[in-house]
Amino acid sequence: MSQPQDYASEIISTRIFDASRDRIFDAFSDPQQLAHWWGPKSFTSTFDEFDFRPGGDWKFTMHGPDGKDYANHTRFIEIAPSERIVYEHVAPHFRMTITLADAGTGTHMTWCMRFENAEICERFKPICVPSNEENFDRLAAFLS
Q1: Mean pLDDT over residues 15-30, rounded?
Q2: What are the structural domains of the chain?
Q3: In Å, how far are 57, 102, 107 from 77, measured between CA atoms?
Q4: What angle do CA 24, 77, 12 make, to 5 degrees?
Q5: SS3 letters for the chain?
Q6: How much is the pTM?
Q7: Staple 56 to which of 51, 64, 77, 83, CB 3.0 to 4.6 Å?
Q8: What's the pLDDT at 3?
């Protein structure tokens, strides 16, 4: 018997992009492209390691517009080209599942951030929800 889904521990963000699934997957899987759009508005990133394969690490620092640096470490869990990317973010701990699906001539992208429990999820929602939208805005601009 499967466990019931705990939606209270998830943040789900979606967007339809005017680009193919292959193009969006390339924008994520190529660190040269990813560095151009990853992160919220006015952030930049320095990638120290980007091993894009299951079990591979992605270590990077996001540089905020306030001058603060935010170290990040993720480990890729699953990669299905042009369909799905799953990774574990170390701290705060969450599992990100990115799915790509056809939407007419574009692509419907879904980000599902699954935290360990609803309390942690609620604490990060005020940061993650608008940041995800800003990240999507940056990706849309990069793709155009």
Answers
A1: 97
A2: 10-143 (3.30.530.20)
A3: 10, 23, 22
A4: 60
A5: CCCCCCHHHEEEEEEEECCCHHHHHHHHHCHHHHHHHCCCCCCEEEEEEECCCCCCEEEEEEECCCCCEEEEEEEEEEEECCCEEEEEECCCCEEEEEEEEEECCEEEEEEEEEECCHHHHHHHHHHHHHHHHHHHHHHHHHHC
A6: 0.89
A7: 51
A8: 44
pLDDT of residue 29: 96
Q: Residue holding tokens 């805005």?
A: 137
121 phi, psi to nearest 5 deg: -60, -45
Question: What residue has token string 């599992």?
Answer: 95
Q: CA nearest 76: which of 53, 99, 93, 109?
A: 53
Mean pLDDT, residues 70-84: 96
